[in-house]
Amino acid sequence: MTVVVLLAVAAGLVFAHRLYRTAEISLSGAILSVISSYGVDVIPERQTVYFGLGSDTPLGLRMTPECTSAFLVLPLIVVGAVMIALRPRIRNRVLFALGIAALAVVIVNQFRVLTLVGLVQWLGVDTGYYWGHTLLGSMVSVFGGAAALVAFVWLATRK
């Protein structure tokens, strides 16, 4: 039953990724509202957060399918389902590991967004967006995703 539920969640992430992206960008907006001294506005139906409103560097970020944490969480869920199908007795460990790794991926993606925002505010829109999205943001995602994967495997397979 757990395997079926996990596979259904995985399918849900694929087919309802727009809803997931809306939740993710809303979380980004909530965090930015707390830490930013400038205006922040979230347009959920467009999966977009506008930040720096009232500053010299306002910008809107849209959470696209390529930038969401959903597709980093998806393989973890599928691998977790396979692990449970092959060894049902490790179900609880796998579910715990999956929860920790998924949370880590979401946090890393929020950190990536906040890094991008910080660099835009510090370096301006052109340079800050380039460094924050193309270079540093990608590095944050790769290293964070790798760390989450290592944590998942370690937590799920340790005795």
UniProtKB/TrEMBL annotation:
<protein>
    <submittedName>
        <fullName>Exosortase P</fullName>
    </submittedName>
</protein>
<feature type="transmembrane region" description="Helical">
    <location>
        <begin position="68"/>
        <end position="87"/>
    </location>
</feature>
<dbReference type="InterPro" id="IPR026392">
    <property type="entry name" value="Exo/Archaeosortase_dom"/>
</dbReference>
<keyword id="KW-1003">Cell membrane</keyword>
<keyword id="KW-0645">Protease</keyword>
<keyword id="KW-0378">Hydrolase</keyword>
<keyword id="KW-1133">Transmembrane helix</keyword>
<keyword id="KW-0812">Transmembrane</keyword>
<feature type="transmembrane region" description="Helical">
    <location>
        <begin position="135"/>
        <end position="156"/>
    </location>
</feature>
<feature type="transmembrane region" description="Helical">
    <location>
        <begin position="94"/>
        <end position="123"/>
    </location>
</feature>
<keyword id="KW-0472">Membrane</keyword>
